[in-house]
Design a protein that fits this description.
Shape: globular
Number of domains: 1
CATH architecture: 4-Layer Sandwich
Structural class: alpha/beta
Length: 227
C-alpha cells in the first residue's frame, strides 16, 4: 500500500464475520469503519462477539448501529469508545469522520428505526465538531435517496431524503453507506462519492484513502480487484 493513510469500511455484518480475515488491507488500515447492522436484531452480547472478531485483525474500530441492532448495542459502543453515531471525530491529517446510524422506517419493524427528520437532526449534530476540517467522511447506514446505492429491485429508491439533502448541501468527499443489500454500487451526488459495498458476507468492502487531491474511495470485493 502507499504511504497515504487509508481506512477500510464495511457494514451489514449481521453476525457473519467470516470474511473479516479475508480483507487483505484490514490489518494495515488506520481504522475499521462499520456502517451499521452488526447484528440480526441482536443485543450487547452479539455485538461484543462481532467486534472481538474484527479486533483480532485491527483493534481500532469506529462503528454505529443500524436498523437491525437494538439501542443497547449503541450503549455498548459508547462504553468501548467506538461509537460514531451522531458524532464528529477528528482523524488527523485534516480528516473529519461523522456518522449517522439507524434507518428510516422499513416494512419489517426493526429495532433501530426513526423518522427522516430525526436523521436530519443527528446529521447536523455530527457535523458540528468537524465542519471546519478540509476533508469530510460521512458514514450513513441509510443511503441517500435517489442513488444507485438505495435501489430495491434495481429501480425503486428507498433511501433517506435527509441524508441526500445533507450531502447536497455539505458535500463530504466520501459517503460510506449500506442498509440496502442488493444495491452494492458506487454513485455521486455532486462532488460526493457514495459507496455501498453491500453486506460483508457477500465480500464487499470499501477502501477509503486520503490522497493529494482529497479523500477517494474504492469499492472492492474480496478475491477481486487484485486482492
Amino acid at each position: 500500500m502507499s504511504t497515504f493513510p487509508f481506512w477500510i469500511g464495511f457494514g451489514d455484518i449481521h453476525e457473519q464475520t467470516g470474511n473479516v480475515r479475508q480483507i487483505p488491507e484490514l490489518a494495515e488500515a488506520e481504522a475499521v469503519l462499520v456502517s451499521g447492522d452488526l447484528t440480526n436484531r441482536g443485543r450487547k452480547n452479539a455485538a461484543e462477539r462481532i467486534l472481538r472478531d474484527i479486533q483480532r485483525v485491527n483493534p481500532r474500530i469506529f462503528a454505529q448501529i443500524g436498523n437491525m441492532d437494538y439501542p443497547e448495542v449503541e450503549d455498548f459502543l459508547n462504553l468501548q469508545g467506538m461509537n460514531i453515531h451522531a458524532r464528529g471525530l477528528d482523524l488527523g491529517n485534516g480528516v473529519g469522520l461523522m456518522g449517522v446510524g439507524y434507518s428510516t422506517p422499513t416494512p419489517f419493524g426493526t429495532p433501530g428505526e426513526v423518522s427522516d427528520d430525526q436523521l436530519a437532526i443527528w446529521l447536523a449534530q455530527a457535523l458540528e465538531p468537524v465542519k471546519d476540517l478540509p476533508h469530510l467522511l460521512l458514514v450513513a447506514h441509510n443511503p441517500p435517496f435517489g442513488t444507485a446505492a438505495d435501489k430495491v429491485g434495481g429501480k425503486t429508491s428507498v433511501g433517506s431524503r435527509s441524508v441526500r439533502a445533507f450531502i447536497e448541501e455539505v458535500q463530504p468527499e466520501v459517503c460510506l453507506t449500506g442498509h440496502i443489500h442488493e444495491a452494492r454500487a458506487e454513485d455521486r451526488i455532486g462532488k460526493t462519492q457514495v459507496i455501498n459495498p453491500g453486506p460483508l458476507a457477500g465480500g464487499g468492502y470499501a477502501l477509503i484513502q486520503l490522497t493529494k487531491s482529497g479523500l477517494r474511495g474504492q469499492l472492492r470485493m474480496i478475491g477481486q480487484d487484485g486482492t
